[in-house]
Amino acid sequence: MSYGFIVFYRFQLMTPEQAGKAKEFWDEFGKGSWPEHLKLIGDYKHAWGSDWSGFLLIETEDPQSFFEFWPIFRDKTRWYIENTRTIVAIKRDAKDWM
To answer: Strand locations in 1-98, DSSP E?
Structure first.
């Protein structure tokens, strides 16, 4: 069984220097700090029709791994992410559609 997490995020207002630092952090974090057991399916820059700056789409077989990772990640991004909202879902198997 797979679990999906849609994490909406909103950036704080930043100076160009802060925005550069945030981009640098995200680029570096994605290269080696993302846990193997959490699959980052997508990083979407916009969430048109909402007031969110974008969202992450994450999938895992072990939802506890997300709940253990998220507070650590949130602490590292708190300086430039104003707010987040997470939706959790269980992925259907193909046989569930029949």
So the answer is: 3-11, 39-44, 54-60, 81-90
Nearest CA to 84 out of 49, 51, 40 is that of 51
| pLDDT, tens digit (0-9, with 9 covering 90-100), for 22-78 | 989 888 876 667 888 999 999 999 899 999 999 999 999 999 999 999 998 899 889
* Cα distance between residue 48 and residue 73, in whole Å: 25
C-alpha distances in angstroms, 35 versus 16, 25, 41, 85? 29, 16, 13, 20
* C-beta of residue 58 within 8 angstroms of C-beta of residue 39: yes
